[in-house]
């Protein structure tokens, strides 16, 4: 698997993000969907990664700069054909190590509270994330769960 810094110019990546957004809207009320669209992911505050096996897109993940010490994870998605194959673990490890290399000290995320999002919450717990209150611009929302962790040593 190769994880690349991505400029979101590949149609396959855009389709994966559109699939991600469609699932978010299918599983949460519109006012509780916090996923970024492809244009928002092209912001200078966002670093976007895609994972590939040869020509096959496996998944994606972004990190959004919140402050000199704090980032947010965004747009974590594994392609349907690559589910349960470790793609999310590799992407998360890569993104967290990049954040550590850049000197960030804390990472936070927002995910859904519904059962659809349980595999994601379990993955984040495996990486040491704990539940927290809203951060950045977020507000309390029964459809959202907020998680964070401090960063330190690189992940292997």
TrEMBL record:
Keyword hit for Endoplasmic reticulum: no
Sorted UniProt keywords: Acyltransferase, Transferase
GO terms for MF: acyltransferase activity, transferring groups other than amino-acyl groups
InterPro entries, per the entry: Acyl_CoA_acyltransferase, Bact_Acetyltransf, GNAT_dom
Domain N-acetyltransferase span(s) in chain numbering: 12-152
Domain of life: Bacteria
One Pfam family recorded for the sequence: Acetyltransf_1
Record flagged with keyword Transferase: yes
PROSITE patterns in the cross-refs: GNAT
Protein name, as recorded: Putative acetyltransferase
Origin species: Celerinatantimonas diazotrophica
């Amino acid at each position: 698997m190769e994880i690349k810094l991505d400029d979101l110019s590949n149609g396959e990546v855009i389709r994966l993000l559109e699939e991600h957004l469609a699932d978010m809207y299918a599983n949460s009320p519109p006012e509780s969907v916090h996923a970024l669209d492809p244009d928002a992911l092209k912001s200078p505050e966002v670093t976007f990664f895609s994972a590939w096996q040869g020509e096959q897109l496996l998944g994606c993940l972004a990190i959004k700069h919140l402050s000199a010490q704090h980032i947010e994870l965004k747009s974590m998605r594994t392609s349907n054909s690559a589910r349960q194959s470790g793609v999310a673990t590799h992407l998360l490890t890569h993104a967290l190590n990049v954040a550590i290399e850049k000197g960030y000290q804390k990472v936070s995320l927002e995910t859904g509270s519904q059962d659809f999002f349980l595999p994601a919450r379990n993955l984040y717990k495996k990486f040491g994330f704990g539940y927290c209150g809203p951060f950045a611009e977020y507000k309390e929302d029964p459809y959202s769960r907020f998680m964070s962790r401090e960063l330190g040593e690189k992940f292997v």
